Amino acid sequence: MKISRTLGALLLATLATGGALAGAAGTAAAAGGATATSAALTAQHTNPTSQRLTLTPSSAQLAACMPHAKVSVNVALRTNQTGRDVFHIEGENLPPNRDYTVFLLEQAGAPFGAAEYIGDLHANARGHGENDFKLIVQEAFASTLVDGKRVRVDLNRVGMWFADPKDDDFCLGANSPVTPFDGDNEAGVQAFNSANAAPLPAP
Q: Phi first, then psi: what are they for 106, rounded to 5°?
């Protein structure tokens, strides 16, 4: 009987120790999981995978003529994974049946600085349009000479122009300025820009 009691006591002690070890391991695993999750969230915050911004009319006069227009941009930042990002632009309630040119810019508003023409957006009869451009956005830059020295200029702002000089006449009249922001060197004024949004992320 004494032997049986001793064996029983040893068995209970072994089970208790195993349970404590399992509990400690579970706690450590949970802590490790929480640490990994925290690290992932921190990495996502410091290295975002996308950025959204809203373009607004480039002047008060244009805003009054297009009170319900909305242009949104979502950039999927994939250069490190695929060699290019995806720039998705979508417009609602735009002046209809028009083409718009889209640029990455040094400065959102005039005088704009360096600019890169990245694509077109067509608004249909309902004023809706959307397009995807596959290009480097996060690391977009221009290389130019300043006082004889080559410098880098980041292109982290966005602008959108009426592609045809006549397309802004509904708001600005027939004598509105002709600008060079189209492939044929003739465009209307800048319609929207990202002046009121955060810059696109720098590399």
A: -75, -40
Contact (Cβ atoms closer than 8 angstroms) between residue 188 and residue 162: yes
User: Cβ neighbours of residue 154 under 8 Å, at least 6 residues apart?
Assistant: 106, 140, 141, 202
pTM above 0.85, yes or no: no
Look at the block and give the residue holding tokens 């702002």: 157
**DSSP states of 71-125 as a string?**
EEEEEE--HHHHSSEEEEEEEESPSSSEEEEEEEESSSSTT--SEEEEEEEEE-T
| SS3 assignment, position 66 | coil
- Contact indicator for 131, 42 with CB cutoff of 8 Å: no
φ, ψ of residue 156 to 5 degrees: the values are -120, 20
Q: List, as one string, the DSSP characters of 12-63.
A: HHHHHHHHHHHHHHHHHHHHHHHHHHHHHHHHHHHS-SEEEEEEEESSHHHH
Distance separating alpha carbons of residues 79 and 99, to the nearest angstrom? 28
Residue 142 carries which DSSP code?
E
Cα–Cα nearest to 116, from 98, 145, 88, 136: 136
Q: pLDDT per residue over 47-106, tens digit each? A: 679 999 999 999 999 999 999 999 999 999 999 899 999 999 999 999 999 999 999 999
Residue 54: half-sphere exposure toward Cβ, Cα within 13 Å: 6
